[in-house]
Amino acid sequence: MALYRHVRDKDHLLDLMAGRLLDELDVGTEKESTWQEELRRLGMSFLALVAAHPAAPFLLSRPFESPGSRRVSVALVGILDRAGFDPRDAVHLLQVMTGMLLGPAVHRATYAAAAARQGSSGPSEPPRTAAAGGELDWRVDQLTAWATGPDSDRLVVELWVAGVQGLAASQRRTGGRA
After folding, report:
1. Residue 35 belongs to domain with CATH number
2. 64 touches 18 (CB < 8 A)
3. pLDDT, tens only, 104-125
4. In terms of C-beta density within 10 A (0-12 exposed, 13-18 middle, 19 or more buried), how is residue 95 classed?
């Protein structure tokens, strides 16, 4: 109960924890950087953060307000402005883009938990699927190894950047909104 002398309630405590995590993100810009490079750096920083703190995706997926979340939002909106989006579209994209990074982060955390459970009960016979050129192994431990590794992070961030880049190009071609 002594904790509640410093925080209003559980939600306030979770908000403070989430804000503290976001304070660790690299949202700095470099004069010579393109918006794509800045978006990549922010995405990789986020994925490194959630890899270092396995519960972070669940904590960050709740709606909350903090100086850290505002700092990240301002940085992302600035990047989207440089990509050519108007402020209203940038705010909407901010919501979608946040979810696009949180999804793989939650996926990583749940696969890691599944692998830990499987490790304690021993491996089971993996299902196999016929694929072009052979069979694919769908064992949780092997999927987890890939899903939690740097190749997965790079793929997520490249898809994230390519999606924004494609949307920006489409917007320029049509002269419309995102």
Report:
1. 1.10.357.10
2. yes
3. 888 888 877 777 777 655 455 5
4. exposed
